[in-house]
């Protein structure tokens, strides 16, 4: 016995909803990815100070985009802590090691996911390569 028809329908509906959710998530990730890529291509070298959004989504291949920022550049870094809750202190320490000065940090949730938004300033003398921070934050999150 596979349960009553209404039970089967309920299970089927639940399954469909899950699949739909997954599709929405994938679509959103693709949208963020293309947005980030075009943004990174536009701002490959930043000599002036301005807000730059650097979405970090790890496995989605952002690390293939190489962007170098100069000292004094202001950047906004979004960290999607979707794998597990990451200690804020460990992220801040990582920024420090990469020569990034965090001016403010904001914690927000979206679709049951936790996001950190960091308003940062490149403080180190070396040009800042966002691949370094992408890779290291990704390792921290996984």
Description:
It contains three helices and seven strands. Strand 5 and strand 6 form a beta hairpin. The chain has a four-stranded mixed beta sheet. It has a three-stranded mixed beta sheet with strand order 1-3-7. Helix 2 packs antiparallel against helix 3. It has helices spanning 5-42, 88-97, 130-141, and strands at 45-46, 53-56, 68-69, 74-80, 100-110, 113-122, 128-129. It has 142 residues and is of the alpha/beta class. It has one domain (5-141). The model is unreliable at 41-67 (pLDDT under 50).
Helix content: 40-55%
Are there runs of 5+ residues with pLDDT below 50, and where?
41-67
The tally of structural domains comes to 1
What's the N-to-C terminus distance?
Answer: 42 Å
* Number of beta strands: 7
What is the tally of helical segments? Answer: 3
Structural class: alpha/beta
Radius of gyration: 19 Å
The best one-word shape is elongated
Which strand order spans the largest sheet, edge to edge or round the barrel? 2-4-6-5
Mean pLDDT metric: 66
Strand content: 25-35%
Main β-sheet, in a few words? 4 strands, mixed
Strand/helix succession: HEEEEHEEEH
Layout of helices and strands:
Layout: H1 5-42, E1 45-46, E2 53-56, E3 68-69, E4 74-80, H2 88-97, E5 100-110, E6 113-122, E7 128-129, H3 130-141
Parallel strand pairs: 1-3, 2-4
Antiparallel strand pairs: 3-7, 4-6, 5-6
Helix pairs in contact: 2-3
